[in-house]
Design a protein that fits this description.
mainly beta, globular, Immunoglobulin-like, six-stranded mixed β-sheet, five-stranded mixed β-sheet
């Protein structure tokens, strides 16, 4: 988003590249704040994390492959609509209850929620490959977990999507950083590129993954990930339904 697209008022905070001075800890005078910026540039795409005692496995037992896209379709009156794997999210329509209180057979067509089974006492790691098919970056945020950014890629020419299950000739396999990746809860997925993130599925529940540009989320660029529990969760069903109805 360009800095002047804010009701035609300039907003420097909307620039993709920010420049600001860095200071050592301690008091900073007003005079020091207005020093001339240096030419040093820190590229977040090449950032590396601090050493961690948590060792990442060579591979994750489960991979979730996603494609994010904004489209204007005549069936939607040409309103910009966000999609995740051809699904555009909106709240559960009927019955209007949280998904955790309903069996999957009652979920409507707007709920894209992959299931991640977990085993008590064993670590469950999940890779998520987010392909961005738009011409602008999308900052994706995962609720309930932090994740490691193993790789990102931005295509300068053509499409830069990555599908580990494709046999497309010439498709380069990304080099995953398993030694010192950055740990985050939001990652910017580059335009016409991808990000590969890995998280430890140790927090049971249904967690939202969405673009953190809120009007993109509201347009449907969001989904859920169910970690642990039973995929149908009938045991939770009766109690959760009763609790949710009592609070509405």
């Amino acid at each position: 988003m360009l800095p002047f697209r804010n009701f035609k008022y300039p907003n420097q905070a909307l620039r993709q590249n920010q420049t600001f001075p860095l200071f050592d800890s301690g008091p900073v005078s007003d005079k020091a704040i207005f020093i001339e910026p240096t030419s040093n540039h820190f590229d977040l795409a090449t950032a590396r994390g601090a050493p961690s005692a948590e060792k990442l496995p060579p591979t994750a037992p489960q991979t979730i492959l996603l494609y994010a896209k904004t489209q204007k379709l005549s069936i939607s009156s040409n309103h910009p609509t966000g999609f995740m794997n051809r699904t555009t999210w909106s709240p559960q329509s009927s019955p209007e209850l949280p998904l955790i209180s309903l069996p999957r057979s009652d979920w409507d067509k707007n709920q894209l929620v992959p299931y991640v089974p977990t085993t008590p006492g064993n670590e469950t790691w999940v890779d998520i490959i987010i392909n961005n098919l738009d011409d602008g970056a999308h900052p994706f945020h995962l609720h309930g977990h932090s994740f490691y950014v193993l790789a990102t890629h931005r295509s300068e020419h053509g499409w830069g999507s990555y599908n580990p299950y494709s046999n497309t000739a010439g498709q380069p396999r990304p080099e995953l950083n398993l030694e010192n990746p950055v740990k985050k809860d939001t990652v910017s997925v580059p335009r016409r590129g991808y990000a590969i993130i890995r998280f430890k599925a140790d927090n049971v529940g249904i967690w939202m993954l969405h673009c953190h540009v809120l009007f993109h989320q509201a347009s449907g660029m969001a989904m859920g990930i169910q970690v642990g529990g039973e995929e149908v969760h009938e045991e939770v069903n009766t109690a959760a339904r009763s609790l949710c109805r009592n609070r509405t």
